[in-house]
Amino acid sequence: MSYTLDSNILINMERLYPRDIFPSLWTSIEGLVSQGEACICEAVLRELERGDDDLHIWAKNLHGFLCATHQDEVLTVAAITQAHPGWVSGTQNDADPWVIAHGLQEQRVVVTEETLKGPNTPDRKQKIPNVALEHGVPTMKFFGFVKAQGWSF
Ligand SMILES: [Zn+2]
Description:
CATH superfamily: 5'-nuclease
Largest sheet: 5 strands, parallel
Distance between the termini: 21 Å
CATH class: Alpha Beta
Strand content: 5-15%
Number of strands: 5
Radius of gyration: 15 Å
Structural class: alpha/beta
Pfam family, one: DUF4411
Number of domains: 1
Helix content: 40-55%
Protein name: DUF4411 family protein
Bound molecules: zinc ion
């Protein structure tokens, strides 16, 4: 199974499991990336660019981590925006449709810390797992992802 990571996964790693304390978590992720099994899309890198410099530089320089946007992803994002016009506003949630579109494009599991919401959730409160489900894209939280690799630290 292969994965594409949402920005909140990397931001949480930096915040909760910093590399100086949890080095093997970071090298394990890097190992997965070198096997082509974990990636991020351009929108996630743009989101990281707005935050911590070290994290952004790490993600940018990690060979094979960043995937260029495929033309079909633009179409998926357009479809998502049409179905949920109130979801993305300004920079709020703006990477989310792209993460889903990238998961769909490369048949990857989206790893995100967002939680599935119940039915009739208004667009502005939509979450990645809900919209991903509409497109048949599986999602997983960080610990689920770590367990799926059989990692323990
Ligand atoms: Zn990718």
